[in-house]
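Subject: sequence -> structure tokens, single chain

Hey, anyone have a minute? Need the predicted structure for the following. Not urgent.
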Amino acid sequence: VTRIIHSFNCLWPFLLVGFSAIGQQQNIRIEANFSPSAITLSRQTTYKVTIHGSQQSPSGSLPAVAGLGISGNPRVFRAASFLNGVPSVRLELSFAVKPERHGNFTIPSWNLSVQGTPHRVPAATLRVLPPNQEDVLRAQARQKQESDLRQALFLEVNLLRKYLFEGETTLGSIDLYIWERLPITRLVQLPQKNGDAFSQSEINRPIEKRTSRNGKNYTVYSWPVALTAAMEGMHELFYKMTVRVRVQNNRNSPSGNPFLQDPFFRDPFFGFGREEAMSVTSEKLKLEVRSLPMEGRPHAFRGAIGTISTNSATDAERVTVGDPVRITFTVTGKGNFGVMPAPEIDSSEKIKVGPPAFSFEGDENLRYEGTQRFDYVVTPLRPGQIEIPAVPFAYFDPTSERYVDASGNVHTLRVDAGETWVDPSPPQSAFTEKQQNVEPARNLFQTESE
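Reply:
Had a minute. Here:
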């Protein structure tokens, strides 16, 4: 017999007034037994320890026996009575026991401390018989009801594929299926993600629709979600949420689960019962997050991943020195727009380039499909024929698994000398005082972000 020790310390403060002193004067006697002492494999029983002569909280270590599942939280019952004018007190500890196989099982004698004094709990034996036909039918009914429950309410996570590249964003959905006969009263919480290797967009209001599956009609609440892989390796991902269901007060379920009672699946309205919280969890998805290849990675790549196209345009071809020019670079398609960094155009002795203003056209929450726009303000510093360099941009296509250089075009700009122009940010010199009344050229143009 393999012995595992369960520790418990019964700390129940209630004592029957008037019997505490009597209990201290009585001799302590302890009994132990199973009730019932013989069961079939599919049944449960109770291991009961009765302490005569005391109602004080005992403490001790209950040995566990291999093949028996014993609850670590006993039920407690205190009693006091007079028998032929003699007072009597007792305390009962009841442990729920579920056998794992048939055979004979004995919980050996063990020590229990009562009123600071150790006492021996006698051994007790349980006989577990093989399941009979009634047990087999009951087990089959329970399995069917559990299967029906899984078909009545379940959560699915749908993604485009089973692998992602590190930094890639994919679009998916979290779908809650509710059988039309299941009386859901409300959704307690939105789906909660379990999987630290992925970041996600905000989960907002669901899309409600109707569908049929396996001969059952369902109401489906679908939450679109954009997931971004943040960590290389194999990872698990699943979602869980809680709903409230109306159930009848029926105790005839063979499993004891109020959601598995027969009327649950017979009555489409069930109506006049109580509310119960019910947790539903999706299956665990195993997703591979692959690292981006180093081979063939262009210098212009800064993390953009997707299936996209680019375009570059300017709002002027001829300007005067100091006049701002807008360069618009757009990225259109499907990709990780939520984490896509802005390309950089370097300033030179001929042009000054400010940081870009950017905007997104599409679903602002998901940021998976649409157009990302970057607007750069370029200020020419010298007259003449000036080339504005191409906006450097490259992305990784997860479908073809290769890098694509999608830099913008080089724009030629004719810059006239015009009137004498002063650099808006010259070094400190004797000319500073004369420039105080000159409005900086960078304020002559306003970006969309302003």
